[in-house]
Amino acid sequence: QGVYTYEDGGVLQGTYVDGELNGPAQEYDTDGRLIFKGQYKDNIRHGVCWIYYPDGGSLVGEVNEDGEMTGEKIAYVYPDERTALYGKFIDGEMIEGKLATLLSTEEGRPHFELMPGSSVYHFDKSTSSCISTNALLPDPYESERVYVAESLISSAGEGLFSKVAAGPNTVMSFYNGVRITHQEVDSRDWALNGNTLSLDEETVIDVPEPYNHVSKYCASLGHKANHSFTPNCIYDMFVHPRFGPIKCIRTLRAVEADEEL
């Protein structure tokens, strides 16, 4: 057994044979969060491996000979550790995923049940002009948790509501949109910035006309949440198998069914 510490402070705990990683291993990020669990063979990831995102999502499957998440039986698992998109991935990128349920995990091996008649999902990161190549295909995880209805805040238009009771720290909804620069947002008429959300120092996510209408865009619904002085949710970073790096809406406290987020 050995522990290797990366320059950035990340840690790999593994089994070394003659200086090479062989056998079970776990990797942790600088905050001590588990980011990888699986096997190594001659210093290369091997067999069924799990890659964990800080947001609670994960990738799981049997890696190829180069140790990459490539194959026809790879899955992305949502933060509920139950809802999954299962199918063809190349180096962790979803090429063709279908809705599945993670029924159980035995000794690190997941067991999935495919949903009959599922839609097909693929990695489809937005650009500055294209919000989605399938704007009316809802997200299956989000669809079970939220719905859009008239806001309880007077004259606020539509709002986002919880479909189910959920505990604190639960991802409820996704905030996808076109990707534009801070410069563009700051230099245009402020009236155009009703649905902008900063992603990072470079990028702002925006849901412009006509995509603010659910009839034109419903692949994600995070932009429908209104602001409150006593919020029950926060925006948080999320790595999504279809939308790529975006933000999500995460509960701060327990919420009830039909509560506005």
TrEMBL record:
Which Gene Ontology BP terms does the record give?
heterochromatin organization; methylation; regulation of DNA-templated transcription
Record InterPro entries: Hist-Lys_N-MeTrfase_SETD7, MORN, SET_dom, SET_dom_sf, SETD7_N, SETD7_SET
By its UniProt entry, which Pfam families does this protein fall under? MORN (PF02493), SET (PF00856), SET7_N (PF22648)
Record's protein name: Histone-lysine N-methyltransferase SETD7
Provide the transmembrane region boundaries.
Answer: none
Q: State the Gene3D superfamilies in the record.
A: Histone H3 K4-specific methyltransferase SET7/9 N-terminal domain, SET domain
Compartments where found: Chromosome; Nucleus
Q: What is its EC number?
A: 2.1.1.364
Q: Does the keyword Transcription regulation apply?
A: yes
What SUPFAM superfamilies does this protein map onto?
A: Histone H3 K4-specific methyltransferase SET7/9 N-terminal domain (SSF82185), SET domain (SSF82199)
Main localisation, per the record?
nucleus
- In the UniProt record, does the keyword Protease occur? no
Keyword vocabulary terms for this entry: Activator, Chromatin regulator, Chromosome, Methyltransferase, Nucleus, Repeat, S-adenosyl-L-methionine, Transcription, Transcription regulation, Transferase
Check the record and name the CDD domains matching this protein.
SET_SETD7 (cd10530)
Sample GO molecular function, one term: histone H3K4 monomethyltransferase activity
Q: Which domain of life is it from?
A: Eukaryota
Cite the PROSITE patterns for this sequence.
SAM_MT43_SET7, SET
**Catalytic function, reaction form:** L-lysyl(4)-[histone H3] + S-adenosyl-L-methionine = N(6)-methyl-L-lysyl(4)-[histone H3] + S-adenosyl-L-homocysteine + H(+); L-lysyl-[protein] + S-adenosyl-L-methionine = N(6)-methyl-L-lysyl-[protein] + S-adenosyl-L-homocysteine + H(+)
Residue ranges constituting the SET domain according to the UniProt record: 144-261
Q: Per the record, what is one GO cellular component? A: chromosome
